TrEMBL record, chains A, B:
<dbReference type="InterPro" id="IPR022657">
    <property type="entry name" value="De-COase2_CS"/>
</dbReference>
<keyword id="KW-0663">Pyridoxal phosphate</keyword>
<dbReference type="Pfam" id="PF02784">
    <property type="entry name" value="Orn_Arg_deC_N"/>
</dbReference>
<protein>
    <recommendedName>
        <fullName>ornithine decarboxylase</fullName>
        <ecNumber>4.1.1.17</ecNumber>
    </recommendedName>
</protein>
<dbReference type="InterPro" id="IPR022653">
    <property type="entry name" value="De-COase2_pyr-phos_BS"/>
</dbReference>
<dbReference type="InterPro" id="IPR000183">
    <property type="entry name" value="Orn/DAP/Arg_de-COase"/>
</dbReference>
<dbReference type="InterPro" id="IPR022644">
    <property type="entry name" value="De-COase2_N"/>
</dbReference>
<dbReference type="InterPro" id="IPR002433">
    <property type="entry name" value="Orn_de-COase"/>
</dbReference>
<feature type="domain" description="Orn/DAP/Arg decarboxylase 2 N-terminal">
    <location>
        <begin position="24"/>
        <end position="259"/>
    </location>
</feature>
<dbReference type="InterPro" id="IPR029066">
    <property type="entry name" value="PLP-binding_barrel"/>
</dbReference>
<dbReference type="InterPro" id="IPR009006">
    <property type="entry name" value="Ala_racemase/Decarboxylase_C"/>
</dbReference>
<comment type="similarity">
    <text>Belongs to the Orn/Lys/Arg decarboxylase class-II family.</text>
</comment>
<comment type="pathway">
    <text>Amine and polyamine biosynthesis; putrescine biosynthesis via L-ornithine pathway; putrescine from L-ornithine: step 1/1.</text>
</comment>
<keyword id="KW-0456">Lyase</keyword>
Amino acid sequence: MTPKLSAFLRDSAPATPCLVLDLDRVEENYRRLKAAMPLARIYYAVKANPAAPVLDRLVGLGSCFDAASFEEVEACLEAGAAPESISYGNTVKKESAIRAAYGRGVRMFAFDSEPELRKLARSAPGSRVYCRILVGNDGAEWPLSRKFGCEVEMARELMVLAGELGLDPFGLSFHVGSQQVNTAAYEAAIAKVAMLFTDLRDAGVKVRMVNLGGGYPVRYRQEVPEIDDIGAAIMGAMAEHFGNALPDILVEPGRFIVGDAGVVSAEVVLVSRKAKDDPVRWVYLDIGRFGGLAETEGEAIKYAFRTPRDGEAEGPVTIAGPTCDSTDTLYEKSNYRMPLSLDAGDRVELLATGAYVTSYASQFFNGFKPLAEHYV
Amino acid sequence: MTPKLSAFLRDSAPATPCLVLDLDRVEENYRRLKAAMPLARIYYAVKANPAAPVLDRLVGLGSCFDAASFEEVEACLEAGAAPESISYGNTVKKESAIRAAYGRGVRMFAFDSEPELRKLARSAPGSRVYCRILVGNDGAEWPLSRKFGCEVEMARELMVLAGELGLDPFGLSFHVGSQQVNTAAYEAAIAKVAMLFTDLRDAGVKVRMVNLGGGYPVRYRQEVPEIDDIGAAIMGAMAEHFGNALPDILVEPGRFIVGDAGVVSAEVVLVSRKAKDDPVRWVYLDIGRFGGLAETEGEAIKYAFRTPRDGEAEGPVTIAGPTCDSTDTLYEKSNYRMPLSLDAGDRVELLATGAYVTSYASQFFNGFKPLAEHYV
């Protein structure tokens, strides 16, 4: 937790549950990533936290933006981003949304299928397009399914078709999975992309860009590799496979930029046991999976907790949210322990919760309002 | 789909995604349940769909209400419900919420632990309280974890304590899991509750109520038992275990009341393949897990689809939502098939989606607004 976050929580004691996010840390993370990969252009994945203060700060730093929807395109423009700094990175778009983004000046779009490419040719003529390919996600704590991307052979044909349809077959993209701690995943993906790059060049398609996606990890309960080491591994792989003819390089960090800049402040609603002699206590918080902590699904992302009783004797706990939904349980199998003296009314902090929290929150499940947001 | 829903969709062609819900069907379901279990008092589980038109209609029918939060208590009161018709059924409540509900006249509360009971004694003195016990969930399509309820031995002690604390130890409750198709689960739970009932009576605690919870199933892709048969099995078990000394009986249906009264109307955004010869198409809709279809997690609830091309040749599909989140995939393993001619722009209907849709929807994940709601 940054000193600014600590000070705000101490001095303001905001109503729980809430997210407090340190914008200076956002800037610091942007600069760290830039330093680790100086040749890469950063497209912030807006979906990680689309709040205006975050976008404002990043616009000021010269960031570009990866938008998942036309609504996110608009949010970037409202924050002062130039249309040419925006990539519409969702491979699944309504044609009306493509048309709207094109109308606002957006000229870069992702795709992974022929029907999508034809929509782009019709409604965003002449735009730069990049094809997402399927790659391995080994090592990611939040691995992606096959939902996005296509096989390499199809990507090759589609990139040729893109040119024939009057689009600019600008580049290729992939995603190694979120919270990826294994640099080998990037290396394997880069090797795959480089082969396709060469194939396409041979076929006369002047592909010029590689979009490395996101997935750069944030420290939760476990240490993760340093971004400098990840950057070095990635740039090493790029140099190995592309030599001196490096293409434009894009990265789409979301979690890395905002994750450890935020903290969720919550209140303990109840600490109880299911039977008198049960060693495991249930700790119920006033935020849960439907209040913003969606990434605890399957106990995938394991947030670290701070309590006012830290340092006292601890025991095992199951941690759950406040709703009447029994799937609203955060951690039952991940060996969490909390102080035995923890009690209802105690405030707890969930560290590094700046990413994928506010936007996931349900609008009013069980009548609970979404968590409040404070940007400091 | 009811004729009223069909007519509304045909005549109004509302923007997608949206929920359209037939209030007459809500009434019909209420009456069907009432007829199947005439001795039970119905407490509608507000969380299933808290919209004012639904609550209004149920108030008019004389329904009682099961609220999960103070906000839901308020919604019931605003719809004209009497405070004494409201049960605050969440076993996990902030003491401030208990106080607020008590202040508005609510006098019935659930609990499953000593700390919660002590909160109630302090902030809702003299109220009727009921203890939730843990029971088996075999046969439920949306089984509950051990999050709510306590072991019988603890329940016994807590009910004695309730009286000592000046509360009215009114009853016992359980929940056999949602979308429960196995009446044996109710029978086993009733047997368990009846034994505790006798124990408590012997201990001088005048427990007078059994809350059977919810879980009454709705037809999705599969046939489910008729509510009359479920009601008969439940009342048979009650008679077997309680004889002529039947306690007050409460039921808390949510899904059963609103589930098949609603339909989600969505649009196909893209139909694509991952490789040219891949037999499985991906069908992307403009609504997904984070837009309201949260119950498709783990492919638990399997909605039935209607498309404008039904009857034409079909093939296997994976069905996914519109967001850049790869977990936003609805069905990959449940052998869904859709017409081969299905295309972007087609409208599809998801049947029996009146429950647990609007309230689960994320406030703006990926920039997408929550689905619109129409009550007809």
